[in-house]
Amino acid sequence: MTSSSGNPTEDETCKRFVLPALVQTGWNVEEQVKSQYRINRGRIQPTARRHHQQRPLVADYVLEYSDGLPLAVVEAKRSRIDPAEGFEQAKRYAELLDAPFAYSTNGTRTIEIDYRTGLISEISEFPTPEQLWARYRDDRSLADDAHADLASAPFILTRNWDGTPKDPRYYQRNAINRAVQAIAKGQRRLLLVLATGTGKTLVSAQIVAKLWNANWPEKGRRPRVLYLADRNILIDQPKDDYFTEMFGEAVHRLGQGRVQKSRNIYFALYQSLSQPGGAQDFYTRFDRHFFDLIIVDECHRGSAAEGSQWREILEYFEPAVQLGLTATPISRKDVDTYHYFGDAIYEYSLAQGIRDGFLAPYRVRNVRIDIDLYGWRPDAGQLDMYGREIPDELYGPKDFERVVAILDRTDEVARYLTEYLHKTGRMHKTIVFCQTNDHAMRMVEALTRANADLSQRYGHKWVCRITGDDHEAGRERLDEFRDDASEVPVIAVTSRMLSTGVDIPTVRNIVLFRVIRSMPEFKQTIGRGTRLSPETGKFAFDIIDFVDATRLFYDPKFDGPPLRRLRDEADPDGSFITFPEDLDVEPDPDPDEAAEPEAGYESHDGGDLPPMITDGEEIDDIRAEGRTLYIDDVEVNILGSAVYITETDGTGLRLRLVRLEQFIKDKLHELDLSPNQLLAQWAHSWSRKELRERLEAIGISTADLGELTGRPDADAIDLLIYLGWGLPVLSRSERALRFKLQHRDFLESFAPEARAILDRVLAQYSAHDESELEVQAMDSPAYQEFGTVVEIAELFGDRSGAGLRTAVDHLRAQLYEAS
């Protein structure tokens, strides 16, 4: 379509000028030119319980040499618009897609941005595919033809459950291409850092696919790959969901039986390759040069520690290319992911995933327990439930469940969670992280008591414990919990078991009732909720924090590009040696000791105990012996809670928490509307709808304000004004009463039968919400005694309803008059 002024639209400019120009220089429009290339999904903005999704980023054209290998982005503008206006947009898209060239054009003039040389120039025509590919190869140091062939090797097409192609997302393609190009150039140690929930398994499978299709490392032979992890679920899920589908019988899982050397892609637990007690290690039955590529999943664990038993496996297969995958690299003196694998060749953070709309944003409900704030001290000579004397000390959160277990504290948290789920959804999948396995069992018992109706209906499957102590029964419960088609279990209670490697997109609540001091553990734990589940309506999740673990959100190390702090120290000769600084708040458990047994579960909670408030000899004895004192009949209360949401900072690279009340206040002031103007818009149906849409677009859902503020009895507009300007809140009943007093003449102008209708409107509004202030609301049981809507309309003068609508409109306008 062309505008009346003769100025072609952007779409027409593309069809008449841009595409023909690409075809003229040899680009295959069907295979190499991807039009309207959707880069991301658009950020999801959470409100108290809902969400609003922003528009996705869409590039007009992406030029690919081969499928999945973008060389350039083309941004088109209308023919009369200066192409410089698309310059920054083209740059942004090219940077996201890891493409070294970008073009902004209006069909007659074209600007080229060359990231290889840093030059910006106006060109007369697009380069040919061969010219751009040669420049790309030069940029990525792929001069050798074999290296170029490997870099341009195709993916293996896989499909989702509904038959749609399982195309890698833009950042997954970036990670795949970066890894394959590094391998082509001879790099032997590779590290990919991808946030939890961003598809590291798909990335690893497609890296292998490219190597497979290119006959790497030598013509006539497929690569031999070893995929290593330290938990069964980290092995079984990628093997069954990706690799077997893509490579069929070439896939094999190694155990302790006969050595099978005729396959190509092997999966193994460290535990199955390593023999304790001095026996010959299973991995030594393979030649050191047998494997071409080793993929180390969750590489911050297991073999991360230098000198560990599991590190020996990687050192034995030193000739192989070794690729580490993790969301949480560690940089400490004793465990340093970077020291072994090198700096990350590609990183994709949690903030970027949320900004792109690929990961679910989260709200944080920070709940304060009185004895956690003030501590608890026993009476003189007080005994625990089993008759043991309790040392006279002041106990705090770091002691609870380790030294003293206050049963009422667990019961109070269970009561709060029950009320919360009643408001938000009792069948919403929830993971509760407790301090120990024993604590997890008591939480199950407390939640069962608090939800006896559901426990009885579902045969005690509504809530279950999944820990290392639950063995195969726990495995069955975990499989049921992960199954989208399984209604129960709804709540899984654990200590550490589910903090990593478990893919459960439907989880809507992450409950922290476990002290967490390690940044990697914290990021892994909250990562259990970041996966989206559009088919079940899950676009955001909630973190309910009882132990102030979310203080780690404020740590400068949280999210953004993973930090590695270095320090220089002088040796005796005066030369400087560089050391990585410890980035963790608290040391992680020893990787070997914390490993799960072959059954696939943790054998104990593992890890160093947090330092206690107390330090008496009796307490040290209790701790050393692993005893816990159990105390009943302690008054425990929830002092209050505050709700926070996630925002990115000015750079868009780092997440920060924002108090929801402050977020709403800031957004309201951005609307540049006074309280009186808000009231005026709220008073009319059409303008109220427009206002709601504007508020939804900036992340404010009026339907959630009652729950947020604890004032479900108040009108949403009064809550907005309270949050924005701090003015007193009127309940709906108070607003209705004020209307009756101030506008008595209006009400008395109607006949008694008609006035009774208006009184009922006000009563319904007081009991429910502003939707009752509409004529259509009268088609409900609340008005049955007055007859049909047509009969009600007759009381206001005519059957058409004009008089009734006028009366309700006037009532509504006067109800919301500013005072």
From TrEMBL:
Any GO CC annotation of this UniProt entry: cytosol
Hydrolase recorded as keyword: yes
MF annotations from Gene Ontology: ATP binding; DNA binding; type I site-specific deoxyribonuclease activity
Swiss-Prot/TrEMBL keywords: Hydrolase
Location of the region described as Disordered in the Swiss-Prot/TrEMBL record: 576-611
Sequence ranges of Acidic residues compositional bias: 581-596
A Pfam entry, by short name: EcoEI_R_C
Chain ranges of the Helicase ATP-binding domain: 181-347
UniProt-listed Enzyme Commission number(s): 3.1.21.3
Source domain of life: Bacteria
Stretches assigned to the Helicase C-terminal domain: 416-569
Classification via SMART domains: DEXDc
Matches recorded under Gene3D superfamilies: 3.90.1570.30, P-loop containing nucleotide triphosphate hydrolases
Gene Ontology biological process: DNA modification
Presence of keyword Hydrolase: yes
Classification via InterPro entries: EcoEI_R_C_dom (IPR013670), Helicase/UvrB_N (IPR006935), Helicase_ATP-bd (IPR014001), Helicase_C-like (IPR001650), Helicase_Restrict-Modif_Enz (IPR050742), HSDR_N (IPR029464), P-loop_NTPase (IPR027417)
Record protein name field: Type I restriction enzyme R subunit
Organism (species): Nonomuraea jabiensis
Record lineage: Bacteria, Bacillati, Actinomycetota, Actinomycetes, Streptosporangiales
